[in-house]
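Budget justification note: compute hours in this period were largely spent on complex prediction jobs such as the one shown. Inputs:
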Amino acid sequence: MKRFRRILEKFIEGILLSSSTITSLTVILIILFLFREGLGLFNRSPLEHNFIIAVSKQNPVQDLSSDQLKAIFNQDITNWSKVGGVKDSIILFTINDITNYFSEEELGASLENLPQKLNEFIEANPGALMHVSEKYLPKKFNGHTIHVKNISVGDFLFGKQWYPTSEPIPSFGIWPMIIGTFLVTFGALLIALPLGLATALFLAEVADIRLRNLVKPLVELLAGIPSVVYGFFGLIVIVPLIQGLFKLDVGETVLAGSIVLGIMALPTIVTIAEDALRTTPLSLKEASLALGATRWQTLRKVTIPYAKSGISAAVILGIGRAIGETMAVLMVTGNASNVPHSFLVPARTLPATIAAELGEAPYGGLHFKALFALGIVLFLFTIIINLTVAYIRNREKK
Amino acid sequence: MKKMLLMALVAISASVFAQKVNFKIKGSDTVLPLTQKEAEVYMKKNAGSSIMVTGGGSGVGVSALLSGTTDIAQSSRSLKLDEKMKLNDAGKAFTEKIIAYDALAVIVNPANKISKLTREQLEGIFTGKIKNWKEVGGEDLKIVVYSRETSSGTYEFFKEHVLSKKNFAPSALLMPATGAIVQSVSQTKGAIGYVGLAYLEKSVRALDVSFDKGKTFTAPSVETAKSKKYPITRPLYYYFLKTNEKKVSPFLTFVLSPEGQQIVLKEGYVPVQ
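Corresponding output:
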């Protein structure tokens, strides 16, 4: 009998061990996948899958940066002299222009005459810049391909334009989104942390039992409302309110996002902090009161320090909720790609961008990888915040 | 404990015996209300069939067609050449069918005195070169540009045909759904946006548009879209793989039948001639 019980205990231990192993492995695998996809953005050409840039043989230009290409296609640069070539106007030729120059019959049913036509075009137009798929390049091509520099980490982090579906060359600059995420989250925490901790303190220490039984379920109900409902509420109520109050041109602002996020993070912070405060043993509080401390002194010196780890858990979870919200923020912050310089202008956040665009990005493509790179940035933010809170908590312990 | 177990069992068995979806349609938010109505009438007439219709934008629909997670991709723009090449490379032959036409209305706040704009003015406004309403004859008010997200076919069509492929202004506000654009334009005085004709409401006003530098201005409506007088008209497409043709063709025949086209008219779109 004893032996059977020991075997049973070992078996249960084994199940617990494998559960925690599976959980840890899952988390590690998700992180690895995130990094592998996201970092793939930086070691490939910024042109879409198998596309190349070709110019005529006489053209001396050998490589271009993404910014120069973008300016050329946006028609801000129209002469080769500006990018290191001879003085000649740039003639753009992209995959969608094919039907402007050649008819469908000339090209053939499955584009078999296209390579030859490309050769003809480049001979007739030495100032041409062609953006075509590699497999349509003829074997004896009358020109050379231009090497386009890869997107650098600096371009990605500090670039100011996010045009992921722009053809032929997209822009992946996320600086406005980093600032936007930071401002919206900071504003949300400014609202939610003081309000949430004060409410928790009130519910745990000051309120009588009837009031607590009324307010606590109400706050917990807030946590159950879906994110999209908050978004609509924000769009229809909060946005016009802000527009009217501050006499702005547009109500979709960072402030609207902060308010909505603050309301969403409140229940998390209140519930966890309140539970933490209530676990302070009665004997500890009574001892403090018996030594002559007032109620508020007891609160400050005994209850709150005891509940410190619970309160910091509440803060971390509240921050996590605020950073990661997508739908609600997507609807009320306006998603403009400018760098926000105050709380009263529209902004775009990282999670909202991922949520809005991941559905349409072709699997494995450049846009897809860029969105994962966004995920990496978010992940690093969360780690930094968690480490900071842990550091503050550890320092206070001493 | 026992009660919870019982309820869980009932829920699981209910979902197992639930109707299996016959086929899925995914894609454009512009075509969405039309497809939903067509699917509703079709399912009433053919009991036992079930069609699941979702939006997300034309880009989402085409992406789903490529990855095989939808049977029909509804789109408010034609496939881009590289999307066609991707489908060909993957060996997926597809068919394109026009099921209706749609007019894109440019909307402003009802309090805005401007009632007509040329294509050049629209291009200037949406690319951010024209920043104030007084530059086009209105009051001294900053222009607030609303647009759809980049996955939208409406966004691509507007960019190609009205903005001559130039990028939208970085200060343009990108809203995730057409409904959000209507809501925002109706509550912001200096706002301008673009929506499909079917989404027009009394809370916003549609502008008359001219594509011949101001000689003639036309208002968007089903009649002007049908007669092609209104310049911002586009076909609405259904894309599906040739291998799926048998599965989707009964629904397709219904949509292109006189009854289906009558629904098109009722919902505010333009029937195929």
